[in-house]
Design goal:
The chain has helices at residues 2-8, 41-49, 64-67, 152-166, 178-186; strands at residues 14-16, 19-23, 32-35, 56-60, 75-77, 83-89, 102-108, 111-117, 123-132, 135-143, 171-176, 190-200. By secondary structure, the protein is an alpha+beta fold. The radius of gyration is 18 Å and the shape is elongated. The two termini are 26 Å apart.
Length: 202
């Protein structure tokens, strides 16, 4: 959670009896999120009862079907937001940008960012990874639709892993969508838990 907050430049997560909470100023979709370390009805209800602002999320390592009976009135289980907590041991692979593309790498405020541009200088893919001690949290991995299936996602992920390993990180962590999971598994990332979510929409 600390690494995710660094990546998104949000306030430092606050400890709560049920887990951690972080606000996302300026995010029109998400006011804030509670992250629970385990799927438990009492923890979810405790977090939910503390919420008065719509667009506040709860995320926990569980399938959405598991948390649905625990969601209080006003809370909606976000089946489309179900994810996968994945991790890998970081390794250096010296990736080469695919033909026809160029890459830019920036390291600022403990966040390493990679941008891939096409021949016209337009964005084709991107990603970033936040350094948090020996861990590095990959975030906002994206390939534009017109440039998919050309190895750009693999290049971005390998480049982030190389730079994070070079900075002293040993463990990579990310929250994958269903669409992104196959890419990460092809690079050796392994799923450790589901990530279920619900959001306050009274």
């Amino acid at each position: 959670m600390a690494g995710w907050a660094v990546s998104r430049a949000t306030p430092t997560p606050v400890e709560k009896p049920w887990g951690l909470y972080v606000e996302e100023p300026g995010n029109p979709r998400e006011f804030g999120r509670h992250v629970l370390p385990e799927a438990d009805a009492a923890l979810i209800r405790g977090a939910a009862e503390s919420v008065t602002t719509p667009r506040t999320w709860i995320k926990t390592p569980a399938e959405p079907e598991e948390i649905a009976p625990w969601a209080p009135t006003g809370w909606v289980v976000a089946y489309e937001e179900t994810g996968h907590l994945m991790a890998t041991d970081l390794a250096t692979t010296y990736p080469v940008v695919p033909d026809g593309y160029t890459a830019e790498v920036e390291n600022r405020d403990s966040v390493i960012r990679v941008r891939v541009l096409d021949a016209a200088g337009e964005p084709a893919a991107r990603g970033q990874i936040a350094l948090a001690g020996e861990a590095a949290i990959a975030d906002q991995i994206e390939t534009w639709e017109a440039h998919r299936r050309r190895g750009l996602g693999q290049f971005v992920m390998r480049t982030l892993a190389d730079r994070a390993a070079g900075a002293g990180a040993a463990l990579g962590i990310l929250a994958a969508t269903d669409a992104g999971r196959a890419l990460y598994e092809s690079l050796g990332w392994k799923k450790h838990a589901p990530l279920g979510a619900c959001v306050y929409r009274p």
